[in-house]
Write a structure and sequence with these properties.
Layout: H1 2-10, H2 22-28, E1 31-36, E2 39-45, H3 52-60, E3 78-88, E4 94-104, E5 108-112, H4 119-126, E6 132-139, E7 142-143, H5 149-155, E8 157-160, H6 175-180, H7 194-207, H8 224-235, E9 242-246, H9 254-269, E10 273-277, H10 281-287, E11 290-295, E12 298-304, H11 310-317
Parallel strand pairs: 5-10, 5-11, 8-9, 9-10
Antiparallel strand pairs: 1-2, 3-4, 3-6, 6-7, 11-12
Helix pairs in contact: 8-9
Length: about 325
């Protein structure tokens, strides 16, 4: 992409490049205009001295912490056990092959891999959206293999899906109703307590800093970052034992990314087991305690974060090395 844009500029063309990926901005742009809240807050020439931290502060209005220093975390009992699990994909072809994993309460296990190597299938299998053809899955010692999504929610599994638009939310429903999707069954009687649900939704919108005109605004009108905060507000208030987060910061700006990562660390500190699926190695090395690598639907190995290197993880992702 960069070479193409440079060639177009050399041909005399003008390019307006819109991105919230700050490394792209500093690499490709000659000038940058920063918008915040629909207003121009700065226009600056991009030089070798222009840093991502400076641009991030202009975008968000405060300093952004790019590197999170994790505190030492004591793990609890084994929360999730996946033992030699196999499953098929949408085309009825093998997607996972004898996958075995363990996650402790209070641990973040990262899942690394090139897109299409079984990460999506693993997340769907653990949330009841895909059936295992072999193997067993246990949550806190209880067999939950091929249980329904509803049963898995009741068992304590929360899910941040890969697609926040097509899977995690209903765009034509308002903010309050999207939050109620995980809470309406907890209400007694045959009818919804509309006032109670609206009050809870307003409190969660404020707590999770969801920027929306109101709880009656359709979820489809929210930005990606605010939609993800809405999903977090709904999922993290179900008192989960296991949180499955698939690409939770993909496509988000630096402010929303920081907010999501801090929420994941809060869940870990509260003793929740977190399965973090991400293609962002910086994110995995920042948040995870161990990294498991998938290639071709197989686990190439599981590495403690203190011993892992990007080169090693890259070779495992390519199927060239095992742990």
């Amino acid at each position: 992409m960069g070479q193409t844009m440079k060639r177009m500029v050399q041909e005399g063309k003008t390019i307006i490049f819109i991105s919230h990926k700050l490394d792209e901005v500093t690499r490709f742009a000659d000038r940058v205009t920063v918008l915040r809240g629909g207003r121009v807050v700065a226009t600056e020439d991009v030089t070798g001295a222009t840093s991502a931290a400076q641009l991030a502060q202009l975008m968000v209005g405060r300093a952004i912490i790019f590197r999170i220093d994790k505190e030492e975390q004591a793990f609890g009992e084994i929360c999730l056990e996946v033992e030699e699990v196999c499953c098929l994909n949408e085309k009825r072809l093998p997607a996972l092959h004898d996958v075995s994993l363990r996650i402790h309460s209070g641990e973040i296990l990262g899942i690394a891999g090139v897109a299409g190597n079984g990460q999506k299938d693993l997340a769907e299998l653990l949330t009841g959206l895909r059936r295992a053809t072999d193997g067993r899955v246990r949550l806190l010692g209880r067999d939950i293999t091929n249980h329904s999504p509803r049963a898995l929610i009741d068992a304590g599994i929360a899910h941040i899906p890969e697609s926040r638009i097509h899977v995690a939310t209903v765009g034509s429903m308002n903010v309050a109703d999207n939050i109620a999707l995980k809470h309406y069954r907890n209400r007694p009687g045959l009818f919804l307590d509309r006032g109670g649900l609206d009050k809870m939704s307003a409190e969660l919108v404020a707590e999770f800093n969801v920027d929306t005109p109101g709880i009656t605004t359709n979820a489809g009108a929210l930005s990606g970052g605010n939609l993800q905060k809405l999903i977090l507000a709904r999922e993290l208030t179900t008192d989960p034992k296991l949180l499955i987060a698939a690409h939770p910061t993909q496509g988000l700006d630096v402010g929303a990314t920081e907010a999501v990562r801090n929420r994941l660390l809060e869940q870990q500190a509260a003793g929740v087991a977190v399965l973090l699926i991400s293609e962002d190695l910086d994110e995995l090395f920042t948040l995870a305690d161990r990294i498991a690598v998938l290639n071709g639907g197989r686990v190439m190995g599981v590495v403690d974060i203190g011993e892992a290197t990007r080169e090693q993880i890259g070779l495992m992702m390519a199927g060239k090395q095992t742990a």
